[in-house]
Amino acid sequence: MYGGGLQEEEYRAYENMEHILSLLEDGKLPDECREEMIHELMEQYLDGNSGFDDDIMGLD
Left (φ > 0), alpha (ψ -120 to 50) or beta: where does 25 sit? Predict the structure, then answer.
């Protein structure tokens, strides 16, 4: 579903991303996991549901 989720879910998503980023920085995620993550994130991005481009699109 596009946006509009519960605040608790947003906090959990950010906490999970922080954990994943620390695993990536420590080199503790196998290549298969990294590739799957890129694929899933790209699907969200292409659907316009990632928030990755919000700041850029908001620039005047």
Answer: alpha
